Amino acid sequence: MSTGAIMPVYEYTALDKAGKRVQGIVDADSPAVARQKLRGEGFFPTTVNPTASQTLSRPAAPSGFFRVGSRIKTGEIAVLTRQLATLLAAGIPLVEVLDAIISQAANPHLKKIMAQVKDGVTEGNSLAHAFSRHPEVFSSVYVNMVRAGEASGSLEAVLERLADFSEQAEALRGKVRAALAYPVFMLVIGSLILIFLMAYIVPDITRIFTEMDQVLPLPTRMLMGAAAFFRSFWWAFVLAVPFGALLWRRVRKSPNGARSLDKLMLTLPVAGPINRKLALARFGRTLAGLLHGGVSLPQALGIVRNVVNNALFAEAIDAAADEIQAGRDLASQLAGSRWFPPIAVQMISVGERSGDLDGMLNKMADITETEVETRITALTAMLEPVMILAMGLAVGFIVVSILLPLFEMNQLIR
Known about the structure:
This protein has about 425 residues and is mainly alpha-helical.
């Protein structure tokens, strides 16, 4: 079984046995080996060139069942998984299935990866092993579920389940993005309007007031001070965003800093309950998929701890896994953690007693995701009038600050 490094990928043009011109990609150690490999498959290569790029983008953080670089979308992997399941269920051999997927893949980066996966399978490796050579695309959860499906002879069912989970997760993300789109748009436009007023309009108008030999009203003095500060230190506002992002990354890399940030994200007044429910839904959905695929509970918990993407949840899962190794049940161990609500613990307990733990975990994830969607919808519905009110107050303050001196000048003229 080959466990070496991933081979380079070459683009080729060749003639088949009928003399028809064909194009494609092949992975091999060198162009000569690529030509030899093509001849062995019945092709007569005319050109064999290295692909423009042999590397994928830096992988994103784990996100459930898939871990995808910026050049490959989660939806593309979900479609690929669905195609794998459908074609295998139709009785088509795995290598032919991979050939069909490679020929249909529109994304060249995904096409290259699947060509390497096919090469690994033809070398005698399992599909899970071939996937595991691409951790930037296929997460440990995905690989372990495929491995369990191959071991149990239910690979098609496992792939169908993976596709279902990914589509559900993508649908939830789409609803969250749609709910947040308008408030974010309002925030950006409102901020740009205020910046424009403070940088260009207010200084020109208030310049007249500085020439007046009288005490200006407090709101006007505050506005002029804010405008002067903004004009003098605008660069600080510009640098604040990249500096804040850099500081966030540095803190996240520190174990203590990451744990503190994770705790903060779970305890924030408004966002905290939503983050807790999202982590709980991710825990339930992923653990259910692994258990249904035939992965043992201790091994599944070891995988899930890396998927919840929160140090405090991971600590609770680790503690529960240690006790399960000693023969205790999962529900009683999670009950001692403040991050697992009583209703979730009760559902897990019912699932363990009935022998349908993965089914109850899925129901728990469904309920939690619905609650998240409802909370976000309610929150965004509340945010819209609050943001409109805040914008109105800010603009109103600017208008009043400008008009007050004019009113006083009018009184003096009379």
